[in-house]
Write a structure and sequence with these properties.
The protein has a single domain, classed as Cytochrome P450 (Cytochrome p450, Orthogonal Bundle), CATH 1.10.630.10. A 6-stranded mixed sheet has the order 1-2-3-9-6-4, with helices on both faces. α7 packs across α8, α9 packs antiparallel against α10 and α12 packs antiparallel against α13. The mean pLDDT is 91. With 450 residues, the chain is an alpha+beta fold. It is built from 17 helices and 13 strands.
Length: 450
């Protein structure tokens, strides 16, 4: 008979080599203090598949591109995303795409796809340009800018215009702090929502956002707006089915959180490496200066290919979600390792992204590895997986890429950047990757090319 954990999951995985860590808390603090270092040490000690225990879970870890593909592609439908994320995302986003399975997931994703179709993306490009051009001008007189909060403000403005179709300036701080509270509940040390705990505060913050957006839904159903909120309110599938009010709120808060926080993280890291590597600043700036002044036309985004390399390299070194979770719903086997039914499974994207087994000089900042000539990321379909994979691959992936390229373009045309701190910045990894010091940089204004 299997042993059950606090989420009803099987914890009887002693047949897999690994480490359970300290009593009660397991390896929780090792993950929190040195996420990548701990994953690397476990992989080197126990191999491609091992067991671990953290956050009151005992789970099997698959730490290779083959393992990531096996779990995320899931051709045999052996794994539940909903149950896998139950201790983390599912508590705060119980009805969002990452926390749905199979038919329910297909139904909701099909409707959501209308929000990210080609015509919609073209309209978002104009909105993103308008926001970024206005916001980056505010950096001109500052001298030193803390990049993380600065980029966060830009991403929140983009979310407000492209996702909500409104100006959030008067409520920006409220929205920002509410999302921070929600994110603090994603990897709770205390798993129960006892009063005063991180998960308790996060659940209350989520309800605050629901209450904030709910009164807007009725008007959006009759609106001619092109923002994502309006499109969600009006979206239908081929049979005419539409989202319920609660489903609209769940999807909206989830995509806002993803766009607002993960894009902030990845752009901040891109800026960090550009500040450390001025030769790449000059290289991208030369490309940007070759484009017409003003907004970047949607059709011109392909000209910013090297900007995309830099963003992809930032996502490789510091993926927004270095670990992804599933729970087995059937007993299955990977390379001779038996995975019992109802068992938590984690795939270690962070280890794979930084492994010399799959990348040349993996800790070097080397965007050219994504060029067509080298294409290191194509050695295995799942060795670069910052957006996940399979049926649950991030639906907003292209939106994030577009927002990053436009933002980098306008920043680099206007400024040079130099680190105003130690060159080796420390990053907090969980629950959201961010520089501990906010990443201060000296901003050197440039004359715009006429």
């Amino acid at each position: 008979m299997s042993k059950l954990g606090i989420y009803g999951e099987n914890t009887d995985v002693a047949h897999i080599a690994g480490s359970d860590g300290w009593p009660l808390v397991g390896n929780t603090f090792k993950y929190l203090l040195n996420t990548y270092g701990f994953g690397k040490a476990m992989r080197q000690t126990y191999g491609e598949v091992y067991r671990s225990r953290a956050f009151f879970l005992r789970f099997i870890v698959l730490s290779s591109p083959d393992g990531i593909e096996y779990v995320l592609r899931d051709e045999a439908q052996n794994f539940s995303s909903k149950l896998g994320w139950e201790p983390f995302l599912a508590r705060l986003f119980p009805n969002a795409l990452p926390t749905m399975d199979f038919e329910e997931h297909r139904f909701h994703r099909k409707i959501m796809q209308s929000v990210f179709r080609h015509a919609a993306m073209q309209s978002y490009a104009g909105l993103i340009n308008d926001v970024v051009i206005e916001d980056v001008e505010k950096w001109r007189e500052q001298g030193v800018v803390k990049v993380y909060p600065g980029i966060k403000a830009i991403m929140l403005d983009i979310a407000a215009k492209a996702f909500l179709g409104i100006d959030l300036k008067k409520d920006a701080e409220f929205i920002n702090q509410t999302f921070i509270t929600i994110n603090n509940g994603l990897a709770p040390i205390i798993p129960s929502p006892l009063p005063g705990t991180a998960i308790w505060k996060a659940l209350r913050a989520r309800q605050t956002l629901f209450d904030y957006f709910r009164p807007m839904i009725k008007q959006r159903k009759a609106s001619d707006g092109k923002d994502i909120f309006t499109r969600l309110c009006q979206a239908k599938d081929e049979e005419g089915a539409e989202f319920s009010e609660q489903a609209i709120l769940d999807h909206l808060v989830n995509v806002l959180s993803a766009a607002h926080d993960t894009s902030t993280t990845s752009l901040t890291i891109a800026m960090y490496y550009l500040a450390k590597h001025p030769e790449w600043q000059e290289r991208l700036r030369a490309v940007s200066n070759g484009l017409p002044e003003g907004a970047v036309d949607y059709s011109s985004l392909e000209m910013l290919e090297e900007h995309e390399w830099v963003f992809k390299e930032a996502l490789r070194i510091y993926p927004p979600a270095p670990q992804l979770f599933r729970r087995s719903i059937n007993a299955c086997e990977f390379k001779g390792y038996k995975i019992p039914a109802n068992t938590q499974v984690m795939v270690d994207v962070g280890y794979t992204h930084r492994s010399a087994e799959y990348w040349s000089n993996p800790m070097d900042f080397d965007p050219e590895r994504f060029s067509a000539d080298r294409a290191e990321h194509k050695r295995h379909k799942y060795q670069w997986a910052p957006f996940g994979g399979g049926a649950h691959i991030c639906i907003g992936m292209q939106f994030a890429m577009m927002a990053a390229k436009i933002t980098l373009h306008h920043l680099l045309k206007r400024y040079k950047f130099e680190l105003d701190c130690d060159e080796n910045v420390d990053f907090t990894i969980l629950p959201i990757t961010q520089p501990k010091n906010g990443l201060p940089v000296r901003v050197i204004p440039l004359m715009l090319q006429e």
